[in-house]
Design a protein that fits this description.
By secondary structure, the chain is of the alpha/beta class. The chain has three domains: about 45 residues; about 100 residues, Beta Barrel (Elongation Factor Tu (Ef-tu), domain 3), CATH 2.40.30; about 160 residues, Rossmann fold. It contains ten helices and twelve strands. Strands 4-3-6-1-2-5 form a six-stranded antiparallel β-sheet, sandwiched between helices. A six-stranded parallel β-sheet has the order 10-9-8-7-11-12, with helices on both faces. α9 packs parallel to α10. The relative contact order is 0.12. Keywords: Electron transport, Oxidoreductase, Transport.
Length: about 325
């Protein structure tokens, strides 16, 4: 499309005998951008491949081999090209995670919710070509990394709040704090809102890793169409996750019908603890982020702590 536009504009200026100096500048900037993107792809490895798996709830996970010339950092994202005949020219940005298993620490992981475009075509490919397992190994190209990093190591208390698939961003920060922060007194509160229980299936290993660190408190809120008790949720034998898993997390799961009420309560609790430096980081729907910002601003007047707010949003 860009090439077509440049050719059309060039021909138009030629016919009208207008100055083409601006076109030279436009072409130079565009070519430089393309060149740098190609360099990033080569740097990430031109022989990359990914193990792709579909999960209940319209979620797809990719675990990707890459060159290891650069290392994952919280907040980073990459553009993924899936090298299939009918989609190889398309790319899409995805937040990057590190797989929880130590044997896969040299890989990158992305998890996304199926929408339209590339994500929908990936799901359709798995359903049409991969049998009952709904998994495949496919060649890909990785362009990146991009994105900025918020240094949460400096805070006495860190509150990470995710809504839905936004957990891919907050988990990356929690993982980084667990692995790289030497402050043993730091408190990390990991809060996750979800519409149903299916994320607990495809995110169970990540939750286990967070729970293994004594500094981390995990809170999960499940929103029901019809509000049910937490015990009903925990004791559901059709979960597929097993009785042992639900016995462990039963104290962490709360059934809720109002994200806004729970957000206000949790933010107020974190601020009222009186830690000298508190950081909030949220990643979720716009309305949820708005509620968190509003609640934090209301709490500042009664707090002597330094409170900083960071936000990650999928708005590329």
């Amino acid at each position: 499309m860009a090439v077509g536009w440049i050719m059309g504009a060039w021909y138009h200026l030629k016919l009208t005998e207008l100055d083409r100096n601006y076109m030279y500048a436009t072409i130079t900037v565009w070519c430089f951008d393309r060149l740098m993107r190609i360099v990033r792809i080569i740097y990430s490895g031109v022989k990359s491949n990914a193990d792709v798996r579909f999960h209940e709830g319209d979620v797809v996970t990719l675990k990707m081999n890459y060159s290891n010339r650069w290392k994952h950092y919280p907040g980073c994202f990459v553009f993924i090209y899936i090298l299939r005949p009918n989609r190889f020219w398309e790319s899409h940005p995805f937040t990057v995670m590190v797989p929880p298993k130590p044997v896969e620490s040299n890989k990158l992981q992305i998890t996304f919710k199926v929408k339209n475009g590339l994500t929908k075509h990936t799901k359709d490919f798995l359903f049409s070509s991969c049998g009952e397992e709904l998994s495949a190994n496919i060649p890909i190209l990785i362009e990146g990394p991009y994105g900025r990093y918020h240094n949460l190591h400096l805070y006495d208390s860190v509150v990470l709040i995710a809504g839905g698939i936004g957990v891919t961003s907050t988990y990356s920060y929690a993982y980084d704090l667990i692995k790289n922060c030497s402050n043993e007194k730091q408190r990390i509160t990991f809060i996750w809102y979800m519409h149903d229980r299916t994320p607990l299936d495809w995110f169970s290993e990540e939750l286990d890793l967070l729970r293994s660190d004594s500094r981390v408190t995990v809170r999960i809120f499940v929103k029901y169409k019809e509000l049910a008790s937490a015990s009903r949720y925990v004791d559901d034998s059709n979960s597929g996750l097993g009785e042992k898993y639900f016995t462990v997390v039963s104290q962490e799961i709360t059934a809720t019908s109002s994200d806004k009420t729970e957000v206000a309560t949790l933010v107020s609790e974190a601020v009222s603890r009186g830690d000298p430096r508190i950081a909030f980081l949220s990643c979720g729907p716009g309305r949820m982020n708005d509620d968190i910002r509003f609640t934090i601003s209301k709490s500042l007047s009664s707090s002597k702590s330094r409170v900083d707010y960071f936000e990650e949003s999928f708005s590329w």
